[in-house]
Amino acid sequence: MNLIVIRNTEAPSNVNYVVGGRSDESLTKKGIIQANELRKKLEKINYDIIITSPVNRAVETANIINYKKIPLIKDERITERDSGILLLKDRNLVNKTEWNSMEKLRTVDAAETLLALINRTNDFIEEIRKKYENKTVLIVTHNSICRAIWMIKNGKGKNKKEINMYYHNSEDIIIYNNY
User: Fold this and answer.
1) Is residue 156 part of a domain?
2) Which one of 14, 34, 69, 84 is least enclosed by Cβ atoms within 10 Å?
3) What is the count of structural domains for the chain?
4) Are 7 and 168 in contact (CB under 8 A)?
């Protein structure tokens, strides 16, 4: 399976520097422009299937970039992390040590940890790897899932730099051949 991974384009939570989590916000005007720019880049890349997070900002990004107009598949397992009581709060309030824990599943703020996120992302990857073995799958998701996919692929996540990786809105089209 070949995998193309894209982070959703800009939403208000990005602009306001708050924890977007699973908030069902729409794209900003800039996010719509970013998605249209991504579409132009993707027109040079073939894909067979699009799987998106069901969160609105990811679905909007997927609809804009979907130059083939194939039906979207929504999958809860690639939804942004559950941010607990930190939803739409200032990102500076996040306890990064707990947030990026590889030892427990929930923080004291009831947020999903990196370990829990990687576990559900791995379940998703294993299923689509079998189901779409000879296909190219385009995934539209969120920063934390992009990071989890990279960590699973590369067996990483042992040091602080890898754990704190950040994918900017629409900055990268990440392609994994033979994932």
Assistant:
1) no
2) 69
3) 1
4) yes
